[in-house]
C-alpha cells in the first residue's frame, strides 16, 4: 500500500526508544548512562530534535529523570518489556502526526539527515529503516501510524522481531552510504570507551 507518495514532508513526531531492560548493560537504564558527559538519550535528542516537529521519549523506568528533559514521556502499553516494538506501538497509537520517526537511545551519533533521507527514499512504503553497508538498523525507522493495528496484532501473537515486522508491513531498508560511526550502538560497557 502506497502511503503519502508525494515528496512534501508533513509533520513528523520523533520518538527516542529508551524503554528497554538494558540487560546487556547489567540492567542499567541505557538512556541514562553517561557518555561524553551526557546521558545517551540526550545525545540522541540533540540530533533528532532538529529533524522532526516534536519529540517524545518512550521509557518505562526512571520516568522523572526523562521528564526533566521537558519533552513528553510515553510508556509502553503492553506489559513485560516486549522490546522496541512496544515503544513503537505506544507512539503509533498516541501520535497526532501521520508519520513517526524512531531512534534507539543507544545510537548517540545518528545521522543528521536520518529523517529526511528516510522520507525521500520511502517510495510510498508505510515503513522504512536505516541500512548501512554492514547491516540493517531497524530501530532507526520511519513508520506511518496506520501500522498501529497490525503491530498490536503482531505483538499479541508473541512476535518480537522488529525487522521481520517492518518487512511484513511492506517496508524496506534505506541505504546510508559512508555512514562511518553514525550507527554505532552502545550495547556493552566497553562501548562507552569509544
Automatic annotation (TrEMBL):
Coiled coil: none annotated. The lineage of its organism: Bacteria, Pseudomonadati, Pseudomonadota, Gammaproteobacteria, Enterobacterales. Mg(2+) binds at residue 106. It comes from Pantoea coffeiphila. GO terms for cellular component: cytoplasm. GTP binds at residues 17-19, 30, 58, 76, 106. Residues 14-164 form the MobA-like NTP transferase domain. Pfam families: NTP_transf_3. Keywords: Cytoplasm, GTP-binding, Magnesium, Metal-binding, Molybdenum cofactor biosynthesis, Nucleotide-binding, Nucleotidyltransferase, Transferase. PANTHER family: MOLYBDENUM COFACTOR GUANYLYLTRANSFERASE. This is Molybdenum cofactor guanylyltransferase. Transmembrane segments: none annotated. It catalyses: Mo-molybdopterin + GTP + H(+) = Mo-molybdopterin guanine dinucleotide + diphosphate. It is an enzyme of class 2 (transferase). InterPro entries: MobA-like_NTP_Trfase, Molybde_CF_guanTrfase, Nucleotide-diphossugar_trans. SUPFAM superfamilies: Nucleotide-diphospho-sugar transferases. Its cofactor is Mg(2+). GO terms for biological process: bis(molybdopterin guanine dinucleotide)molybdenum biosynthetic process. Belongs to the MobA family. Its main location: cytoplasm. The N-terminal domain determines nucleotide recognition and specific binding, while the C-terminal domain determines the specific binding to the target protein. Its EC number is 2.7.7.77. GO terms for molecular function: GTP binding; metal ion binding; molybdenum cofactor guanylyltransferase activity. It is found in: Cytoplasm. Transfers a GMP moiety from GTP to Mo-molybdopterin (Mo-MPT) cofactor (Moco or molybdenum cofactor) to form Mo-molybdopterin guanine dinucleotide (Mo-MGD) cofactor. Monomer.
